[in-house]
Structure formats: structure tokens, C-alpha cells
Specification:
Elements (H helix, E strand, L loop, with lengths): L5 E5 L6 H12 L2 E3 L9 H6 L1 H25 L7 E3 L6 H8 L2 H15 L7 E6 L2 H11 L9 H16 L6 E5 L9 H12 L5 E4 L6
Parallel strand pairs: 1-3, 1-4, 2-3, 4-5, 5-6
Helix pairs in contact: 3-4, 3-5, 6-7
Length: 213
């Protein structure tokens, strides 16, 4: 992993993306870029009525993420190290899961137009965890609207992530199994992961943290 690079932490809802992104940003002295989830006015309504509000929620996320990424690129901030808790391309995961056929067709046209204008990360760290772990972590952080997320929906999202990253080839990819470990509580795992990031080359690597071995 080169210095001054762009690192993205990704994974399904509740896996610990933002927590790890904060840790990595501190370690690398990097600028931290966080997804603006709570600013989406359609998100709570989506969890109440997915069929009615999926498209609005998805478009809001798409355009918000695009503006944020474009601003970084225009300011040439990628000269310093950047750590983000989302990958722009992952927007497709939720679109494919939640939108109707016609909505998805329209969404894809817009996504392709915007995606072509943005820089790609130097490394994506993809966090995986079992559905029961994801659900427990969601309940622990106790966001009111997330109480409406069912285990079935969480499982669908986790499976969609697996399928997406199984086919992902745009950038180097580090797949991390974190069902059994806590990067906040276990500094040894964090040090081991950072060492793995520093040594990361091209292609896909699968990494099992020390606490899971």
C-alpha cells in the first residue's frame, strides 16, 4: 500500500465500517471521509414502507455520495492519505436489492454516468460477519430507524455484498473476516490488520484476524 493512498472500508450494515475507518485514519494520519447516512430524509420512511420510498432513498444516497467524492477529487486531496467508510460503487448493491425492474434500469443509467467521473481507491477493505453478529451490533448502537431492519433483510444485504465483491475487480481487495473480533477492544488484531494493509499488493487477499484463528 503506497503512502498518500485512498483506502475504503466496506461491508454490510452493522459490520463496523466506520469504527475501523476511524482507527485507520488515526493510524495513517489520514483525512477521514464518512458516509452521510443520517442526512437522508427518505431513509426512515424507506424502512417503514420500502416499496414506496426505495427509489427516493437510493437516489438521495447516490447523489450525496457523488458530490462528496467529486469534491475530494476537485480539491486534489488524494495527494494525502484518505480513509473512507464507503465505496461509491457499492451503491449498486442496495439498488439491486431494493428497486423495481424499471427503477433499477433508470438508476443504472445515472450511476454509470456519475461513476465514470470519479477516481478509484487504491485499496478496498471488505469486512464480513455472520448475520447474527451484524444484528447484535445493530441493536447495540440503537439507532431508532434501524430497529425496523429485520434479520431477513440483513441477510439479503450481506449476501448481496458477498456476490458484489466476489465479482469485484476494479481495485485491490482485502477481505476480512471479523465475526469473532473487535478492532476497538483488541489492539493486537488492529496492528496485524495494519501490517496486512501495508503489505497489500494487487488482486484479492483473504485475511483472518488473529482473534479468529
Amino acid at each position: 500500500m503506497k503512502s498518500g493512498g485512498y483506502i475504503v472500508v466496506e461491508g454490510p450494515i452493522g459490520v463496523g465500517k466506520t469504527t475501523l475507518a476511524r482507527i485507520l485514519a488515526d493510524e495513517f494520519g489520514a483525512r477521514l471521509v464518512l458516509e452521510q447516512v443520517d442526512e437522508n430524509p427518505f431513509l426512515r420512511r424507506f424502512y417503514d414502507d420500502p416499496e414506496q420510498y426505495a427509489f427516493q432513498a437510493q437516489l438521495f444516497f447516490l447523489l450525496t455520495r457523488y458530490r462528496q467524492q467529486q469534491a475530494l477529487a476537485q480539491q486534489e486531496l488524494f495527494r494525502q492519505t484518505i480513509v473512507s467508510d464507503y465505496l461509491f460503487a457499492k451503491d449498486q448493491i442496495f439498488a439491486q436489492t431494493n428497486l423495481s425492474v424499471d427503477e433499477l434500469a433508470l438508476y443504472r443509467q445515472l450511476f454509470q454516468l456519475l461513476d465514470a467521473r470519479l477516481p478509484k481507491p487504491d485499496l478496498v477493505v471488505y469486512l464480513q460477519a455472520r448475520t447474527d453478529v451484524l444484528l447484535a451490533r445493530l441493536r447495540k448502537r440503537a439507532r431508532e430507524y434501524e430497529r425496523r431492519i429485520t434479520p431477513e433483510y440483513l441477510q439479503r444485504i450481506a449476501e448481496a455484498y458477498k456476490e458484489f465483491f466476489f465479482q469485484y475487480e476494479e481495485t485491490p481487495l482485502l477481505v476480512v473476516n471479523c465475526s469473532e473480533i473487535d478492532f476497538v477492544a483488541n489492539s493486537e488484531d488492529t496492528v496485524d490488520l495494519i501490517r496486512e494493509i501495508h503489505s497489500m499488493g494487487q488482486g484479492v487477499q483473504h485475511y483472518i484476524p488473529l482473534g479468529s484463528r
